[in-house]
Write a structure and sequence with these properties.
- It contains nine helices and nine strands.
- By secondary structure, it is α+β, with helices and mostly antiparallel strands.
- The strands form three sheets. A five-stranded antiparallel β-sheet has the order 1-2-5-4-3.
- Strand 7 and strand 8 form a beta hairpin.
- The protein is elongated.
Length: 302
Amino acid sequence: MTLLPKLLLLIALLFQSAIICAEDNAIAISNLTNPARSTGIQIGDVLQRSMTFETATPQNMISKALPAKGTRNDEVELIAASIVRLKEGSKNQYKLELNYQVFTNATRSKVMALPAQTIKISSTEQLVLPAWRFWFSPLVETGIVNAKANVQPQVKAPTIDLNQHALGLKVFSVMLILSIIGLIYVNADTQWLPFCKGNFARAHKQIKRISRSKVTDINRLKKALFSLHSSFNKTYGSNLFANDVGDFVSEHPKFMPLQQQILEFFTLSNQSLFSRHRQDDREMLLKLLSISKSLRDCERGV
C-alpha cells in the first residue's frame, strides 16, 4: 500500500521538473504583436502575429523548426511562416512572422483563437507562443437558403454621358477631313482631281520641285521658265509672247489682276535666256515660284 503513493509522488515530481525545465528553455520574446482587431473577423481573413527574440541559433536551423505551411488547428490554417534576422552579433536578433487564415462554416458568432505553439529551435531553446482569442463573425446569421431569398441586386455603375464627347469627335472629324481636302487642293497636281488639272497648277508643281531639289543642275532655271511658258501657250492656244499679253488677259479676264506679274515673267525670261549677264538662279527661281503660285491660285479661283 505504501508503494503506490510513493510512485504517484515520483510521477508528480517528474512532471513538475519537466515543466520547470521547459520554462528554463523558453526564449524571452522582446516584442509580440498580435492582429490589430479581435472582433468582426470573417471567413478568409488573414491574421498576422509577429514576435522579436534573440538567440545564438543560426537562421537556417530556425527556418527548419518553423511549423509547416498548411497546418490547421481549430479551423485556423497557417498559410505563411517567415524568419528575418534584424541584428547580427553574439546573439542574433530575429523577427518571426506567422500568417493565419480563418476557415469555418459557423453561422453564428463564436470565440476562436490563434493556437498556442511551442517551437523547438534547438535542443536547449524553444519559443513558447500563447494563444490569441478573437470573435468570428459569420457572413450570414442563418442558413444559406434564407440568405438567397433576401439577396438584393447589385447597384449598377453610373453611366457616363457621351453626348459631349460624340459632338467633339464629330467636330474634329469634320476639321480633319476639311484639312486633308485643303492640303490636297492646294498642293496636288493630279489631273483627275477637280480643279487640279490646270496648266498653271502643273507648272507651279514642277517649279516648286525644281527649286527644292538638292541635285546640281545648270539647266534648272531654263526648265522652270519653259514649264511656265508651256502653260501660257496651252492656255492661250498658241505661242504667247510679251506683245500678246493684252490679248491673253482679254480672252481670260480672270488673269487681269495679274497682268503686271505676267509682264514681269516675260521680262525675267528675256533676261535669263538672251542676256549675257549671269543671273542668280536661286533668286530667279523664287520669283518664278511666286508668279506661278499666283497664276495657279487665279486659275483655281482662290
